[in-house]
C-alpha cells in the first residue's frame, strides 16, 4: 500500500455530518414513539374512566400483560431470526401441566417440579428447532405440529382435568413486598431478552440469520445452532409463561393459553419487528404486549359489550401498527 | 487501464462526435436529490440524445444510480425538471417512464428467481387476451429478446438456477424487448465476461443505428472509449466535467477521483514461498466439478479464468464449505477441512467473497459495522458476549481503509451504493485477517480507485504469507493481479499459464477448449432445445 | 364510568332493593347460545331491578376470567356473579372480590376452594345421568351408542360425560362403541358423527354433550334421525327444543339458562339489600321430550 | 462489431443440459409425489379399517375436505403473493351469518342472500388488502385485526345465536345426482384457482409479487392492485366456504370455522407452497386439504381417543411436509 498513501482517508463531509443528528433522533423515535402511543392510549382511557389510572388497576394491567409479554419475549428471538412459533400456547399448557403432574403424581419436590416444567418447554422448543434447522421444515409447519402434539399430550397427561400446582409454582402467582411476582418475572424476562439480543454473540447472530440466512452461513455463523437456540428459548419462555398462568390459578389447566400464540406474535409485530426477520427489539415487544393488555383491560373497565370488544380490539391493533408505519415513513423521508 | 480489453477498437465508420449533436429526447435539467438531510445530487444537467451513448462516470457513491433512477420514474427530483421531447414531465412511476419509451437495466438484478426465463423477460407486459396469458406469444417474444443477446437457455428454466452472468443477460433482454427510445444501462457489464460484453456492445451499436438514446454506466474505463459518445463526470453528487468519450483514460480518472492513479495493477515486490497453504485435491461434485487439483502457496495469488458457467463459482463455494462435494480433499496449512462446513473453513483462515453480494454477502438491514464483523463475532467474544465497541472500532478502521463511502458505520448496508456494498463484503475478511482468500468477482462494480485499494489489500495478504484464489470475469484483472492463471471449462481445469507472460488469447483458447473437445456439444449450432 | 351493556334496551327499570348498584357478570363464554340465554335472563332481571349489570366474556379462558374480574373489582363493581370457566381455577379469580368483601355468587358452576356467598346451579353430572336414562329408554335399553364429547378439558364436558358414563352403566344391553370430541361445535359434530357412523353403521343412539353437537349429529343422520337412530342432547337451547318438537332430537337436558341468569341476579339483589340467602339455590334440570317441550319454549 | 466475435456466444454446457432432465421430471414430481403420499395414507387406513375405502366414506372425506379446501384455494393466492390471511375463518362465519341475516331478518330473496354473503367476504378481503397494500400494514397484522373484527361483527349480528339460512344456501349442503354439492363446489373452486394462477395475467403477477416484490414493481406490475386482488379473492373463497358450512348445517353459527385459518394455511404449505411467497399450486393445495381431511376422518374411523388425536394429527402434518422436503432435496441433487 504505497501509492495509495497520497489519498486522504475518507472524511465525512459537512452534509454527511448533518445526517448523524436526525439519525440519532430516528433511533430515539424507534424506541420512544410506540411508548408515547401507549401513553396516549392510557390517557384516553383515564379520561373515559378515572378507574383506569389507579395504582391497583395499573398493577392489574401489568399482571395481565405478564403472560403474553413473557411468551412474546421468547417469540422475539424466533421472529428476529426469521421464524415463527405457533406452539407457545400449547407448550405453556404442557409445561404447566407436566410440572403439576410431577408434583402431584410423581411426588417430586415443588422446586424440582418448577424446574421440570421449564425444562419441558426448553425441550419442546428445541424439538421444533431441530425440525426447522435439520429437518428443513418450514417454521410454520414444525410449530403448528408442535401446537397440536403439545396440546394433545397435555390432555393425555391430565386426562382432561386440572391438576393442582406445587407451592413453588403457586408462589409465582403471589406478591412480594406488595409487587405481584408476575410483574417481577416480566421485568426479569424482558431484561434477559434485551441483553441476549443486544449484547451476546448468539443474539447478534439471530439478527444476521433473520436478515439473510445465506450471508450469515457464508460468514461462518452456525445457522442451524442459532435456529435451534431461538426455538429452545421460545419454548423456555413459553414454559415460564405457563408457570405464571398455573401459579396465578393455583392449578394447571388442560386448555390453558390456547390461542395465545396469535397474541404473542401480535405483541412482537406491534412492537416493530418484521415477520420477514432481522428486525425486532425487546423494548418494542414489551410495549406491544402492554398495548394489548391495556386495550383488553380498558374495554373491560369501560364495560364495552364482549361482542363489540372483539371488533374494537381488532381495530385498535390495526391502528396501533398503522401509526407505527406512518411514523417510520415520517422518519425515513 | 492499460491492458487491452476484449473489446473492439472504436470503428471509424461510426458517427460519434463528428456530426452536430441531435436534439435531446430526455434531459435532466438542474436536478437535485437528497435522502433526508443528505444531498446526494446537486444541480445536475444531463442530456440524452438519439443515436448517442451518454456515459455517466464517477466513483462509488457519486450518485450515478440515483441520477438514472430519476429518469426511470423510481425517484422524483427534489429540485429541477425532467424534460422529455422538450416538455417537462412528471415521472411518478416506472410505468410512466415506460410509456414515454424509457427502459432501464438497473445495477442490481431485478428478476424473480422462482419464475421462468420467459416470464421474467416479459414481466409486467405478458401478452394477453381478455386477461389470459398468451403462452405462445410469450415464448416467441422471449426467444426473440434472448436471441438478441445470444443467450441460449431453456425458456422454462427458473431464472434463479442461472448464474449471475446469465441473469444479467436475461435482465438486458428484458429491457431490450421494450423497444424503448431511451435505454439506460447501469453497470450492465459488471457481471459479464468479455464475450458477453462484446455481444452487448454489438446490440448497442444496432440500437445506435436505430437512433435509440442510451445512458451507460461502467467502471471499466476502456468500455467508455469503445461505445460512449459524451461523458458526464460526477464527483460527490456534483457535475464536475463534460468531456468526449475519446478523452484518455488517465484524464478521466483524474476528473473522477481528483488525482492520478499511476498503477492500475500494483506490482508486488516479493516472491511466493514454497510452502503450499491451500491444497485442493481431486475435488469432484457430480455434474459440476470434475477432479479439480489446485495448490496455492503462501504468498501466491492464483487467478481462475473461464467462461460463464465454467464452474469457477462452484469451485470456490466447495472449497469454502458452502456447497457439498462428492469426493476430494481440501487442506489449509496441512490441516484437512471438514466438507460442507463454513465454520471450519473460517476457523482455518479462509475468507470467501461470494459472487452475489446482495443475496449471499450482505444482511441489508444490518449496519455496516455489523456486516463487517460477522466473521469475527464469535472469535472476539468474551463469555458469549459480543465485543461491540471493539468490533465497531475495528469496522471503522477497515471502512476507512477501504474508503467505504457512508454516513457512519451504523448506517444500514441497504442504503449504500453498489460498489460500496461490494467493499463491505471484501472488508469482512480484511477485518477477520483471513490468510486464504477465495474471491469471486471481488471488484464487481467497484470504481477504479477503490479497485486499486483492493488489489493492494490482496497484495498485502500475499506479502504476509497468505494465499489468494481469485475468480474474475475481468481478464486484464486476472492477468494483472495473479502470479499464475488457471483456466476452467465445463467443471474441469483445462490449463495453467504464468500470468506474467500469458495473453488474453491464450486464456480464451483454454477457456473454450474443453467445451468444444469433450462435451459433445456442437459449438456453432443455433438455439438448442425449446421450439417456437 | 357508565356501563354500556350488550343490550341497549334499558327502557323500564323499576326502583327496587338493588337499584343503582353495579354488578358484574363474568361468563365463561358467549360463543354458545346457552350462555347467551344466561346473559339474557340476567339482563332482564337487572333491568327490572334497576341494577347496572356489566357482562364480561372470558372466552373459555381461566386466565382471562381472572384478569377481567380483577379489572372489574378495581373499577368499582359492587357484586360479582361468576360463571367459572373452570371450577378449580376460579378460586384465584374471585380472590380480589372476596378480599374486597364483595358478594360473590357462582352461576351454573361452583368455585372450589373459596368461600363464596351462594351458588345458583344445575347439576351437570346428574344431567348426564338423566340423558343416559332418556337415551336408554328411546332405544329400548339395547344396542350400540356413540358419544360426542365437548371440548376436551372443560368442566362441562367432564361432568356431563362422567354422568352419562355412570348412568349408562346401569343398562347392560347398551354398549358405548365410540367417544370422540367435536369441541361443542355443530359443524365439527357433523363431520365426526358422519365418520363414526361410517365406522359403526349399526349404531342406534347418540349422546351429544350439548345441543349444538346433537344438531350436527342430526344433520349427519339426515332422515335417520329420530327414526333408526335416537339422539339426546344437553342444554335445551331454542334450536334444541325445536328439534325435540319436530322429533329429530329425542330429548335434551334443559337447564333453563334464562332462569339461571334471572335467579342469580335476583339473589344478588337480595344480598346487596342486606338479606341473608341460602348457600345453594338449585335450578331444576329437566329432561325435555316431545311430551313436555311446550313448557320450555318461549 | 461483426468480425470481432472470435469467442463463441455463451452456450449451455452439457452439465446444464443434464440438469434440465431432472428439472422436467422434477416438475412431474412436484405434482405427483404428494399425491402418491396421499394414496399411501389412504392405503394404510384401508388396511387398518376396511370401512375407510368405501364409496360412501370417500364421499364423506370429500365433503369434509371441501370447507378447508375452498378456504385454502383462496389462501393460495395470498401465499403465492407473499402474504398470509388469518381472517378466513372469521370471514367465513361473518359471510354465512350476514347471508342468513339478510334472508331471515332483512327478508331478501334466498339467492340474493347467497350473493350478499359472498360479497361480504369479497369486501372484507378487499379491506384487508387495502390495509396491506395502501396502509402498509403487515399482512399478519391486517388479517389478525380482521379476524377479530369479523368474529365480533358475527356475534353482534347474531347476538351469539345460530340463524337459519336461506334455501339457496341450504342447497349447497344437498346432493345433485348423488354427488354432494360441496364436492362440486370444491372441484369448481379448484379449477378456477388453477386457471387464475396459471393462465391469467393477474395470476402470473401474483407469483412475481411474491417472488420479488421490488422486481415486480420495477417491471411495472401494479403491485398494490395485485395485493388487493389476492386478499379480495381470499375473502370471496372464505365466504364460499362459509356458505358451505352454513348450507350443510342449515344454519349460520356464530362460532363457525373458528381456528380454520391455521388448517387452511397448513393445507397450502403441505401442498408445497412457501410462506415466503412466489411458490404454490392449486393442485398441491387440494392434496394438502385432502391429507388433512383423510387424517381426521381416519382417526375418527379408527376410534383413536380425542386426546391422542391431536398428538397424531400434529405428527402426521410434520411427517407429510418432511417427506415433501426430502423429495425435493432428492430431485435437486
Ligand atoms: N435510499 C437511500 N437512502 C439513503 N442514502 C442513499 C439511498 N440511496 C442512495 N443513497 C446514497 O446516495 C449516494 C449515491 O448512491 P448511488 O447509488 O447513486 O451511487 P453510484 O454512483 O451509483 O455508486 P456505484 O458506482 O457504487 O453504483 C450514496 O452515498 C448512497 O449511500
Ligand atoms: N442450482 C442450479 N441448478 C441448475 N443449474 C445450476 C445451478 N447452480 C448452478 N447452475 C449452473 O451451473 C453452471 C456453473 O455456475 P456459474 O455460472 O455460477 O459458474 P461460473 O464459472 O462461476 O460462472 P460465472 O460466475 O461467470 O457465472 C452455470 O451454468 C449455472 O447455470
Ligand atoms: Mg450505482
Ligand atoms: Mg460465478
UniProtKB/TrEMBL annotation, chains A, D:
Provide the topology term for how it sits in the membrane: Multi-pass membrane protein
GO molecular function terms listed in the Swiss-Prot or TrEMBL record: transmembrane transporter activity
One Pfam entry name: BPD_transp_2
Q: Which residues cross the membrane?
A: 28-49, 61-79, 110-132, 139-157, 177-197, 226-246, 307-326
Keywords attached to this Swiss-Prot or TrEMBL record, sorted alphabetically, are: Cell inner membrane, Cell membrane, Membrane, Transmembrane, Transmembrane helix, Transport
Protein's cellular compartments: Cell membrane
Does the keyword field hold Transmembrane?
yes
One GO cellular component this record assigns the protein to is: plasma membrane
Q: Tell me yes or no: is Cell inner membrane among this UniProt entry's keywords.
A: yes
Stated name of the protein: ABC transporter permease
> What is the species of this protein?
Sanguibacter inulinus
From TrEMBL, chain B:
The GO terms describing molecular function are: ATP binding; ATP hydrolysis activity
The ABC transporter domain sits at: 26-261, 271-515
Q: Which SUPFAM superfamilies match?
A: P-loop containing nucleoside triphosphate hydrolases
Q: How does this chain sit within the bilayer?
A: Peripheral membrane protein
Instruction: For the region Disordered, give the residue spans.
Output: 1-22, 513-532
Location comes to: Cell membrane
Q: What domain of life?
A: Bacteria
Query: Which residues lie in Basic and acidic residues bias regions?
Result: 513-522
SMART domains from the entry?
AAA
* A GO cellular-component term linked to this record: plasma membrane
What Pfam families does the record point to? ABC_tran
Record's keyword terms, sorted: ATP-binding, Cell membrane, Membrane, Nucleotide-binding, Repeat, Translocase, Transport
Protein name from the UniProt record: Sugar ABC transporter ATP-binding protein
From which source organism is this entry? Sanguibacter inulinus
Amino acid at each position: 500500500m504505497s501509492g495509495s498513501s497520497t489519498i486522504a482517508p475518507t472524511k465525512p463531509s459537512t452534509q454527511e455530518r448533518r445526517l448523524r443528528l436526525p439519525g440519532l433522533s430516528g433511533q430515539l423515535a424507534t424506541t420512544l414513539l410506540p411508548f408515547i402511543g401507549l401513553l396516549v392510549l392510557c390517557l384516553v382511557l383515564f379520561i373515559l374512566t378515572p378507574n383506569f389510572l389507579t395504582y391497583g388497576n395499573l398493577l392489574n394491567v401489568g399482571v395481565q400483560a405478564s403472560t403474553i409479554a413473557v411468551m412474546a419475549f421468547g417469540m422475539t428471538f424466533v421472529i428476529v431470526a426469521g421464524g415463527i412459533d405457533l406452539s407457545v400456547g400449547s407448550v405453556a399448557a404442557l409445561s404447566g401441566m407436566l410440572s403439576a403432574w410431577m408434583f402431584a403424581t410423581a411426588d417430586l419436590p415443588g422446586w424440582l417440579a418448577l424446574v421440570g416444567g421449564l425444562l419441558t418447554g426448553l425441550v419442546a422448543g428445541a424439538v421444533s428447532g431441530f425440525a426447522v434447522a435439520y429437518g428443513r421444515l418450514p417454521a410454520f409447519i414444525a410449530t403448528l405440529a408442535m401446537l397440536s402434539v403439545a396440546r394433545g399430550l397435555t390432555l393425555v397427561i391430565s386426562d382432561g382435568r386440572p391438576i393442582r400446582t406445587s407451592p413453588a409454582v403457586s408462589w409465582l402467582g403471589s406478591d412480594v413486598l406488595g409487587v405481584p411476582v408476575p410483574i417481577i418475572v416480566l421485568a426479569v424476562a424482558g431484561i434477559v431478552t434485551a441483553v441476549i439480543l443486544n449484547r451476546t454473540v448468539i443474539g447478534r447472530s439471530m439478527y444476521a440469520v433473520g436478515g439473510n440466512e445465506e450471508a450469515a452461513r457464508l460468514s461462518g455463523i452456525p445457522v442451524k445452532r442459532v435456529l435451534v437456540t431461538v426455538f429452545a428459548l421460545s419454548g423456555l419462555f413459553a414454559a415460564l409463561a405457563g408457570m405464571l398462568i398455573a401459579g396465578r390459578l393455583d392449578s394447571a389447566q388442560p386448555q390453558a393459553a390456547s390461542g395465545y400464540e396469535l397474541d404473542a406474535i401480535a405483541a412482537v409485530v406491534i412492537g416493530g419487528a418484521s415477520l420477514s426477520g432481522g428486525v425486532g427489539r425487546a423494548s418494542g415487544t414489551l410495549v406491544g404486549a402492554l398495548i394489548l393488555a391495556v386495550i383488553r383491560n380498558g374495554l373491560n373497565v369501560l364495560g364495552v359489550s364482549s361482542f363489540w370488544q372483539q371488533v374494537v380490539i381488532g381495530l385498535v391493533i390495526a391502528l396501533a401498527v398503522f401509526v407505527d408505519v406512518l411514523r417510520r415513513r415520517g422518519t425515513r423521508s | 487501464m492499460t491492458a487491452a480489453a476484449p473489446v473492439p477498437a472504436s470503428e471509424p465508420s461510426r458517427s460519434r462526435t463528428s456530426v452536430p449533436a441531435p436534439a435531446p429526447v430526455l434531459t435532466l435539467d438542474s436536478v437535485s436529490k437528497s435522502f433526508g438531510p443528505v444531498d446526494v445530487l446537486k444541480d445536475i444537467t444531463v442530456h440524452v440524445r438519439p443515436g448517442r451513448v451518454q456515459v455517466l462516470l464517477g466513483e462509488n457513491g457519486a450518485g450515478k444510480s440515483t441520477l438514472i433512477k430519476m429518469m426511470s420514474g423510481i425517484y422524483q427530483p427534489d429540485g429541477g425538471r425532467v424534460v422529455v421531447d422538450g416538455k417537462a414531465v412528471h415521472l411518478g412511476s416506472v410505468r410512466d417512464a415506460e410509456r414515454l419509451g424509457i427502459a432501464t437495466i438497473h445495477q442490481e438484478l431485478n428478476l424473480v428467481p422462482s419464475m421462468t426465463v420467459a416470464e421474467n423477460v416479459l414481466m409486467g407486459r405478458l401478452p394477453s387476451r381478455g386477461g389470459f396469458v398468451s403462452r405462445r406469444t410469450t415464448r416467441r417474444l422471449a426467444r426473440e429478446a434472448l436471441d438478441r443477446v445470444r443467450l441460449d437457455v431453456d425458456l422454462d428454466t427458473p431464472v434463479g438456477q442461472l448464474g449471475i452472468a446469465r441473469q444479467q443477460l436475461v435482465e438486458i433482454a428484458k429491457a431490450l424487448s421494450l423497444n424503448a427510445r431511451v435505454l439506460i444501462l447501469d453497470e450492465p457489464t459488471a457481471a459479464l465476461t468479455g464475450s458477453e460484453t462484446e455481444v452487448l456492445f454489438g446490440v448497442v451499436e444496432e440500437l445506435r443505428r436505430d437512433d435509440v438514446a442510451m445512458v451507460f454506466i461502467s467502471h471499466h474505463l476502456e468500455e467508455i472509449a469503445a461505445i460512449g459518445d459524451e461523458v458526464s463526470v460526477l464527483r460527490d453528487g456534483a457535475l464536475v466535467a463534460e468531456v468526449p468519450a475519446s478523452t484518455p483514460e488517465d484524464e478521466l480518472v483524474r476528473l473522477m477521483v481528483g488525482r492520478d492513479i499511476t498503477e492500475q495493477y500494483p506490482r508486488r515486490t516479493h516472491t511466493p514461498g514454497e510452502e503450499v497453504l491451500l491444497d485442493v485435491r481431486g475435488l469432484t461434485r457430480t455434474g459440476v466439478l470434475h477432479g479439480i487439483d489446485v495448490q496455492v502457496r503462501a504468498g501466491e495469488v492464483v487467478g481462475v479464468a473461464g467462461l460463464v458457467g465454467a464452474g469457477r463459482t462452484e469451485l470456490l463455494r466447495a472449497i469454502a464449505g458452502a456447497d457439498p462435494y462428492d469426493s476430494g480433499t481440501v487442506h489449509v496449512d496441512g490441516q484437512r477441512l471438514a466438507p460442507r462446513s463454513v465454520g471450519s473453513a473460517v476457523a482455518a483462515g479462509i475468507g470467501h467473497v461470494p459472487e452475489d453480494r446482495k443475496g449471499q454477502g450482505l444482511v441489508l438491514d444490518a449496519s455496516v459495522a455489523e456486516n463487517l464483523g460477522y466473521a469475527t463475532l464469535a472469535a472476539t467474544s468474551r463469555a458469549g458476549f459480543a465485543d461491540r465497541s471493539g468490533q465497531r472500532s475495528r469496522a471503522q478502521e477497515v471502512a476507512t481503509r477501504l474508503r467505504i463511502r457512508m454516513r457512519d458505520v451504523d448506517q444500514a448496508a441497504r442504503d449504500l451504493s453498489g460498489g460500496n456494498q461490494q467493499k463491505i463484503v471484501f472488508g469482512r475478511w480484511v477485518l477477520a485477517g483471513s490468510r486464504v482468500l477465495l474471491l469471486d468477482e471481488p471488484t464487481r462494480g467497484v470504481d477504479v480507485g477503490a479497485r486499486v485499494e483492493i488489489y493492494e489489500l490482496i497484495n498485502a495478504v500475499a506479502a504476509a504469507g497468505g494465499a489468494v484464489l481469485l475468480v474474475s470475469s475481468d481478464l486484464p484483472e486476472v492477468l494483472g493481479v495473479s502470479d499464475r492463471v488457471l483456466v476452467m471449462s465445463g467443471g474441469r481445469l483445462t490449463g495453467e499459464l504464468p500470468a506474467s507472460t500469458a495473453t488474453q488469447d491464450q486464456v480464451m483458447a483454454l477457456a473454450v477448449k474443453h467445451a468444444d473437445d469433450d462435451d459433445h456439444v456442437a459449438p456453432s449450432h443455433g438455439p438448442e432445445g425449446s421450439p417456437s | 364510568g357508565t356501563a354500556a351493556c350488550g343490550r341497549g334496551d334499558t327502557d323500564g327499570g323499576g326502583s327496587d332493593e338493588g337499584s343503582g348498584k353495579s354488578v358484574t357478570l363474568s361468563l365463561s363464554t358467549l360463543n354458545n347460545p346457552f350462555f347467551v340465554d344466561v346473559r339474557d335472563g340476567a339482563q332482564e332481571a337487572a333491568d327490572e331491578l334497576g341494577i347496572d349489570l356489566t357482562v364480561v366474556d372470558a372466552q373459555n379462558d381461566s386466565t382471562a376470567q381472572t384478569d377481567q374480574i380483577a379489572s372489574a373489582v378495581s373499577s368499582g363493581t359492587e357484586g360479582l356473579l361468576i360463571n367459572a370457566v373452570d371450577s378449580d381455577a376460579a378460586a384465584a379469580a374471585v380472590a380480589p372480590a372476596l378480599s374486597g368483601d364483595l358478594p360473590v355468587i357462582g352461576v351454573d358452576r361452583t368455585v372450589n376452594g373459596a368461600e363464596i356467598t351462594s351458588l345458583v346451579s344445575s347439576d351437570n353430572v346428574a344431567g348426564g345421568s338423566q340423558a343416559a336414562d332418556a337415551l336408554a329408554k328411546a332405544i329400548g335399553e339395547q344396542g350400540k351408542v356413540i358419544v360426542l364429547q365437548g371440548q376436551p378439558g372443560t368442566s362441562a364436558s367432564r361432568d356431563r360425560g362422567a354422568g352419562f358414563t355412570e348412568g349408562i352403566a346401569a343398562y347392560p344391553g347398551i354398549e358405548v362403541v365410540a367417544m370422540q370430541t367435536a369441541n361443542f361445535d355443530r359443524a365439527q359434530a357433523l363431520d365426526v358423527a358422519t365418520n363414526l357412523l361410517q365406522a359403526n353403521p349399526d349404531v342406534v343412539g347418540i349422546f351429544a354433550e350439548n345441543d349444538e353437537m346433537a344438531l350436527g349429529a342430526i344433520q349427519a343422520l339426515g332422515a335417520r334421525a329420530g327414526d333408526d337412530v335416537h339422539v339426546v342432547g344437553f342444554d335445551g337451547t331454542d334450536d334444541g327444543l325445536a328439534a325435540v318438537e319436530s322429533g329429530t332430537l329425542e330429548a335434551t337436558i334443559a337447564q333453563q339458562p334464562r332462569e339461571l341468569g334471572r335467579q342469580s341476579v335476583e339473589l344478588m339483589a337480595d344480598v346487596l339489600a342486606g338479606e341473608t340467602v341460602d348457600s345453594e339455590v338449585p335450578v331444576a334440570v329437566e329432561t325435555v321430550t316431545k311430551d313436555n317441550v311446550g313448557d320450555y319454549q318461549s
